[in-house]
Design brief:
Rossmann fold; about 45% helix; transferase; alpha+beta; about 350 residues; 3 domains; Heat Shock Protein 90
């Protein structure tokens, strides 16, 4: 366009076009009869792609300027479209997250209702039953029900926190891992008569600075997997060993089952979230997130976990935990939500 137009100049026309066609401003080249640098700068700042002085440019120069102007506008429009797409995607994601959070809030609320009923009835049985009916065996089972309901309530709370992206903390304290392992094995022995449990202790010092609730979740996942994938009558061996290296003291926890085993091609991915081994029958429930949670919790304690397995010959999961990490809260991020079903 010519700089000198009736009623306005080229720069003023560019301003008017930008106001009326904000998203589709055409390519523009300003033509003027004088080589005024001030006009050139003003034109370019107003949205012109080039500035040419009449009588000084060749046809080739004009063609080059037009091609460059059109390409600049095309790229600007493409970038603007991408920006708008990103904004729409971000808005849709925020709306989806809001809906998800609301659904999770409702779900956790509905899940806690039955848990409260279970806990209340377990307490009422203790109170209402005559003393002669409340045998040690029954009392143990009622305690197991109450403890399981409490654990499920904690897992629901952790799940809600994790899905909302809030930060969680590991609260380490001085604890005896052998006591926790003993309690878990006894609990399973009292509730499952289809498997033979074997607990082996190697060493004496199983004290360490760990988060009890997190390690309980690790044990729950590993032991529930061993039960889930082992045939009726199968052996489940839990080994706890104290060992020392030149640099630190460690506790080794092994959970060995006699179940399906894991195919070799699945072993590198066994701790990936949502991955399930290819030989797991559809009849065995699970979402493939439990082992990912286990690895996350173990690593937050400064430990490691590995698996050895052959298809058809069971699996052995080995956890190594350092015993002397300082007792301080450690951020666990958002990856430690309750993820019980594994493999």
């Amino acid at each position: 366009m010519d700089f000198h137009l009736p009623g306005m100049n080229g720069v003023e026309l560019l301003h008017a076009l930008r106001e009326r066609c904000a998203e589709r401003v055409p390519a523009a080249i300003i033509l003027t009869g004088t080589g005024n640098e001030r006009l050139a700068v003003e034109a370019m700042q107003s949205g012109a792609q080039d500035y040419l002085v009449k009588g000084t440019f060749t046809p080739e120069r004009l063609r080059h300027s037009l091609r460059a102007a059109l390409e600049t506008v095309r790229m600007a429009r493409a970038l603007e479209e991408r920006r708008l797409q990103a904004e729409r995607a971000e808005r849709a994601a925020r709306e989806a997250l809001a809906v998800r959070d609301e659904l999770f809030s409702l779900a956790t609320h509905d899940l806690k209702g039955p848990l409260q009923i279970i806990t209340l009835n377990a307490q009422l049985l203790r109170v209402k039953l005559p003393p002669e009916a409340l045998t040690p065996s029954l009392n143990t089972r009622l305690s197991s029900i109450s403890h399981a309901a409490m654990r499920m309530g904690e897992l629901i709370d952790h799940f809600l926190v994790a899905t909302r992206g809030r930060e969680q903390l590991l609260y380490r304290e001085r604890m005896d891992l052998s006591a926790l392992v003993h309690a878990k094995v006894r609990e399973l022995e009292s509730t499952s008569n289809r498997h033979a449990f074997h607990l082996r202790l190697e060493g004496k010092d199983f004290m360490g600075n760990w988060d009890p609730k997190s390690l309980e979740r690790v044990l729950d996942n590993l032991l529930s997997n061993a039960l889930k994938y082992s045939p009726s009558g199968g052996d489940i061996v839990v080994t706890l060993a104290a060992q020392a290296t030149p640099s630190e003291r460690q506790v080794r926890l092994c959970v060995e089952d006699s179940g399906l085993g894991i195919p070799q091609e699945d072993l590198p991915r066994v701790f990936e979230r949502f991955h399930r081994a290819s030989n797991v029958p559809a009849s065995i429930a699970g979402s493939g997130v439990g082992l990912a949670s286990v690895r996350r919790l173990v690593e937050l304690h400064g430990g490691t976990i590995e698996v050895k397995s052959q298809q058809g010959h069971g699996a052995t999961f080995t956890v190594l935990l350092p015993q002397d990490i300082p007792v301080d809260p450690v951020s666990a991020g958002t990856g430690t939500g309750p993820e019980q079903d594994a493999r």
